[in-house]
Amino acid sequence: xxxxxxxxxxxxxxxxxxxxxxxxxxxxxxxxxxxxxxxxxxxxxxxxxxxxxxxxxxxxxxxxxxxxxxxxxxxxxxxxxxxxxxxxxxxxxxxxxxxxxxxxxxxxxxxxxxxxxxxxxxxxxxxxxxxxxxxxxxxxxx
Length: 142
What we know:
The chain has 142 residues and is an alpha/beta fold. The chain has a domain at 1-24 and 88-142. Helix content is 33%, strand content 21%. The protein has five helices and five strands; from the N terminus they run E-E-E-H-H-E-H-H-E-H. It has helices at 42-45, 66-87, 100-109, 112-115, 131-137, and strands spanning 4-9, 13-18, 28-34, 93-98, 118-122. The chain has a five-stranded mixed β-sheet with strand order 3-2-1-4-5. A hairpin with a 3-residue loop joins strand 1 and strand 2 (13-18). Helix 2 crosses helix 3 (100-109). The longest helix has 22 residues, at 66-87.
């Protein structure tokens, strides 16, 4: 039997499900991940910066905005968990359901071998939905 995982994520929360209960079967929640830093205000993420001066006022340019940096960190953490699942033989097929902006970041962080396991993607934020509601958005053949 193929081990199929469904990752449902946004920039601060992710839920990982197993979908191995047969055609159209229920999802079994395997893990719940949170990254509260992604919800923090930019000023809270940059509290250790130097005092205010003309060059670093409120419109200060960052190489990467702090909130975006935190979502990239979370995407990397999730991609590492998926990579471990693949290398340990617990993941053979993957469906990703993610908020549109986060889906692209997650795709960019996946290693090539794990990315090849993606059987489908849905660009929606369903992190607050119940498993049976999430299941309704997935292919019946899953």
